[in-house]
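Proteins fold reproducibly. Consider a sample protein:
=====
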Amino acid sequence: MKMKKKSERWQTVEYTDVWEAYLEETLPGNITPWKKAIGFLIGGLALLTFQLKMKHLEWILPTVGYVLLYLGLRSLRRENKWFRISWWISMLSLVVHTCLLIGMVLPLADSVFFQKAVSESRVWEAAGRLLLLLCFRQGLKVVYEKAEAITGTEAANKKDPVLWVLLWHLLLIVVTFLPWIQGWLLGIGLTAVFFAILYQLYVLGNDLEDTGYFLEPTPIRIGNRMFSLCYLTGLLVVILCCGAWCSHLPLKEVAEPERAGKTMAVKNEQRLCELGFPAELAANLSERELELFQEAVLVEVKTDEILFDPKEVWVKTGDHSYPYSYHEEKRHRLEITMVVIELSQGEVYTALFWQWGQGNPWWQDAFFFEGEKGTELIGGSLLYERKGVTYRAEIPGLSYGIKAGVIGGEQQVITGKVSYPFGSQRQRGYLLCHIGDFKETSESKMIKGIFCYYHDNLPFCFPYQDTQRELLQQHYAGDKYQKISFLSCELGV
């Protein structure tokens, strides 16, 4: 019996020695917990310091940088209180940055309060980074002290690259507030110095091992890769869902009743059709609006077509090539019709109709209509069909607005937003305007109108944009998603 226990004890020792020898042979000597943690810190500092303002990289790169900082300090948090404080600062910075990213796709981002908060957050983020580096540097000092206590000798070649990182950030702040010393040569020099400091921080892991103090990895439930994947994927899903939800405008809809028999509305509609008013468009007007045209004597119609999302190819003629845009099968097609109605008293009304042929106007489209001087808005509606029932809804944001001119100046226009429910069919809408009294004018009058429409296929913009305001400010000028229709009708007396 004793011999059996002895053999078991020797067998256990033998297996343990074999396992330790296997780990020493298979694990490279340069892969240590210090090396991994310092590597994450270097990557996080680099991404947070150098930002590229293109293709939303000014938001993507800092997000990855905060994740790397958090992961690097997570493995050190149990070594001493200073590392733990640094880890808490990195976690708080990550939470604040996440909240800002989500807020950027909400209508809140368009407010002055949020924009001020974003600008001030830059200052607090820089202050938090300096505080994090100070705590991390203090934690390194504690590590060197423990190493000296273990070995009984003073650690040699104690380097302090974190101090140089702190001084470099302070110098960058000074340069930022002193524009007269800025320049591309100074920028190149600061960049070279920063990467030299990062290299010294990179070799810090090996230097710490030379002190005789080895870091034991902190047990974690979620690995670094799994945490990064879950966080980034979850953040992307939340941003997409919030952006799509805010861009799909809610509508106050009511079912449109069918017009019965020989009511006054039906008679007014028939009279307009006899004068040349398109029957399909006249059916969109409400009974109250049809009453305005009881004494109509003249109707003029002008139609146009707007095509969005063109396909572009390069055409070569001889030694020259030029881009040519064409619309494949008239995708994203919007039909525009302007109807001018003159009454017997000389009053003139303009009805502007639009109807989607193909497309998905489910998000935050915007438009403005510039009519004759003194054009007065009477009303307007969005109409669509769902499950065989016609619905009428108010145009979101329908009001007067001030449009910025291309070469200075401002004009008053009628503006609004367009968004239809998912699954709806025959999406259409119209504006009804009163122009004025042309009874004492000459033999003819040219009625003109400019209709500008913005339609994007994407469900949201990052950061959030109020398309109605952006359209009025001409920020979409020259954009392929903004189209303008020039309409005119000659109205004879």
Notes: The first strand starts at residue 253 and ends at 255. Residues 1-31 have pLDDT under 50 and may be disordered.
